[in-house]
Prior knowledge:
This protein has helices spanning 2-20, 31-48, 62-69, 71-88, 112-129, 153-161; strands spanning 52-59, 94-99, 102-108, 146-152. It is of the alpha+beta class. Strands 2-3-1-4 form a 4-stranded antiparallel sheet, with helices on both faces. The longest helix is centred in the N-terminal third of the chain and has 19 residues, at 2-20. The relative contact order is 0.17.
Amino acid sequence: xxxxxxxxxxxxxxxxxxxxxxxxxxxxxxxxxxxxxxxxxxxxxxxxxxxxxxxxxxxxxxxxxxxxxxxxxxxxxxxxxxxxxxxxxxxxxxxxxxxxxxxxxxxxxxxxxxxxxxxxxxxxxxxxxxxxxxxxxxxxxxxxxxxxxxxxxxxxxxxxxxxxx
Length: 165
């Protein structure tokens, strides 16, 4: 009996840990998970002198989507953007929802040029696909676009030391 209770407790603890690290709407890693993993990725990049880039993604005019089409449509847009962006990530990348309509990705071993290329691919994919999924009513069609910022640890470090890349 004690063994069964112990196994049950272990399963519950594992489920709670997963819930604490996962965004309930998109099932992506959440903000807490992103920053925890970000520390690990940054430490590795620092110790091995490897490339590391970050993407920050924000859904444009999200308040307008919520106001015009309702919160269910807004949730649908968030889920569609999450799915489309996650499909674009490389297998070693870490993509998370960090709050509201904001997402972020850690791109290990990616130069700033590679990060920009991935960001542009995500932007195009969302612009081409996400709008069609939020409304069947042509009178309330809302275009979904995103803004994406990129930064590279190696690129920043080079500017701090005065090196040219």
